[in-house]
Every structure is written in C-alpha cells, then in structure tokens.
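Format notes (please read before filing issues)

Several people have asked whether sequences and structure tokens are stored in separate files. They are not. Every record keeps both together, in the order shown below: the sequence lines, then the token lines. Line labels are part of the format and must not be stripped during preprocessing.
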Amino acid sequence: IIVQRLQADVNTEKRLPESAVVQMERPLVRHKQGKKEREMCLKTYITYVILVISEVMEVKISTKGRYALRMMLDLAQHQKEGFVTLKSIAERQNISKKYLEQIVPLLNNAKMLRTNRGYQGGYILAKSPDQYTVGEILYITEGSLAPVACLDDNPNLCERSGECPTLNIWKGLNKVIIDYLNGITLQDILDQNQNQAVNEYYI
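Then the structure lines:
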C-alpha cells in the first residue's frame, strides 16, 4: 500500500529505486521464521520504507554522517585491539585520513571516543558498542534528521504551523525515522553482519 501510494504521488522525474520496490513487495513475515528472524525482517522492511520516502523527498545523510558511522563501526569491530589509529581506519574503510580528522573533533566533543596520544596513540570507543545508536551518531554530524525544515526548531517557528494540514504527516514521518535509527546499535550491526556471513558460508 505504501509503495502504491508513493508511486501514485511521486513525479515521473523522481522514480522509486527498483531494488527498494522489489524488496518491499516481498512478504513481510514468513510463518516459519523465528522471533529474531521476524524482528530482522520487520527492521529490513522499515529500512526500505524509509529509503523510498527519502528518495521521494530527497532526504539525504551527508558524507560526513555516513563516514562517522563507518568510523564508529570500524572501532567497534576492532575494539579488542585497543587504541586504533586513524590511518588504519582510513585504509580499511577507503576514506581519506584528512576527512576523518574533520570528524574526530565532533565525536570527541560528544564524548563518543577515548583518545591516546603518542607513539601508540589512537582512538577507542568510550562505551561498549551496544550503548551507541545509529541515531545519536548521525545527530552529531547532521544536527537534524527532520524530513522538513519546520521541524528543526522546537517549538515550531513556522507561522503556518497552527493551521498547516500536513504538519502531522511530517511529525509522524520524523518519529518513524528517529525511532528506527535510535533502535539500532553498533552491536546490532555487528551481529547482523556476522549472522549474514555465517549464512553465506553455509550456502
């Protein structure tokens, strides 16, 4: 239903990604799936819903936000190695070290990292991976993830907010985005990738 409504409303110049439509049209839950599989399926479904809406509304996460998330995830993956250098993160993630140097102060100011200077210096997560959500990491770099500008301010400063017939739509969408991103931790991503690797190995 969501796909049909979006396809009906979207301009022909902004076609939905075919991959997203195909994935969303698949059955949401199979009866034989266990609880964890159903939860993962639901999260996948919500991901594609947000993907489609983002494509339609041109809601984009900046490069800085995506790289910050990848950096934090890399640190989570190598947390047992102790302090990790920016150079090693840059090499593994194929990201410019200079770009990472612009992201580090943002994460440091938010107390997301612990820093060790010197010969064996580097960075390490200040908390365990299960205590970081995707949402809080993106908020640091993006400032706001609201789908429309009028939701950036609280209270809403738009002069039409009191009579706007579409405001509740954007508030609802904003809540879906926030709840979804705040519901995923770095540990969740690690576990998902590990499970996927195991399944591919057995296949």
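For reference, the curators noted about this record: The mean pLDDT is 78. The beta strands are 113-116, 122-125.
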